[in-house]
Amino acid sequence: MAGNSFGKLFTLTTYGESHGPALGGVIDGCPSGIELDLDAIQNELNRRKPGQSAIVTQRKEPDTVKFHSGIFEGKTTGTTIGFVIENTNQKSHDYTHIKDSYRPSHADYVYDKKYGFRDYRGGGRSSARETACRVVAGGIAKQMLKGIEIRAYVSAVGTMKLDKPYTELDLTKTESNIVRCPDVDMAASMESYIKEVRAKGNTVGGIVSCVIKNVPVGLGEPVFDKLHAELGKAMLSINAVKGFEYGSGFHGSTMYGSDHNDSFNSDGTTKTNYSGGIQGGISNGMDIYFNVAFKPVATLIQKYETIDKEGNTVEMQGKGRHDPCVVPRAVPIVEAMAALVLADYHLLNKLTKL
């Protein structure tokens, strides 16, 4: 199975399954001498972990990270950083009903056809539980990126969407509610809606928006390794993600060039920021902002038709503990993947200037 590593210089390789003994990762390329706040890294995991509120999966996992190498006396040593997150609350029997059948819009079918065998317990490697490893690595990358601020928040749940641009929001309020929406009134409405959806055994999608401030000019490589292209790859690698747009995004296609062009100020900043902080694939020093669209979770706690391994039509009903909406827990994952991209391009930029 290829595709378990991300990055060019600052790289993360993950391993483990949702219902195996543990998940873990190996980070290569992290510079030495970075003083780490391990509590802050654990807090990132706490933001992502299951069972944290009434609107997420009720699987109870402490998600405590244990570092095995690459850190000494609170600082990175420059060698490989190895870590593990033990699984403690698996209920694999909840998945026996899908052993020989496939959940629609899930990876069940394609995994079986590609490998001729699959770990049906919680989806194995296709489970979003793998993203816990990304959050650990992202927590380290954030501390490497001194001065750069990465903030993600829930901007939409289903058809309920914030109309305000991020510049009119107080993003410090994002963690003040369980939906992780910085608009308190909208957060309350979103929470009620998610609970209604859950009560019906259904699921709903949403959008996570992200803002990155204080990015220096020059991150990103022309042609195939554009900064926005790598951010897009990073976000689209997250489970359940169906779309990525940065800057003016799809709305920009409706505008005239005379309106869309970001005119310069004398210091090189721009009067507007439809470019989303990236021009020609290279950061221009303005805020980078983007949206990540998440589909509804595939596993429904209601009856529906599907097929089994023989192609027979069968009736299925989801069991176990599943998120009715993934976006509240996806916020730290989006931040983590953004941090991994910026950490990698920070190191690549140093090579460019040698």
Structure explained in plain terms:
- The chain is an alpha+beta fold.
- Helices cover 25% and strands 21% of the residues.
- It contains seven helices and 16 strands.
- It has helices spanning 38-48, 108-115, 131-144, 184-199, 227-236, 257-260, 327-352; strands spanning 5-6, 11-16, 22-28, 65-67, 71-72, 75-76, 81-86, 149-157, 160-161, 206-213, 241-246, 278-279, 282-283, 288-294, 303-307, 313-317.
- A five-stranded antiparallel sheet has the order 1-2-3-7-4, with helices on one face. The protein has a five-stranded antiparallel sheet with strand order 9-8-10-14-11. A two-stranded antiparallel sheet has the order 5-6.
- A hairpin with a 4-residue loop joins β1 and β2.
- α1 runs antiparallel to α3 (131-144), α3 packs across α7 (327-352) and α5 packs antiparallel against α7.
- The longest helix is centred in the last third of the chain and has 26 residues, at 327-352.
- It is globular and about 65 Å long.
- 41% of the residues are buried.
- The mean pLDDT is 92.
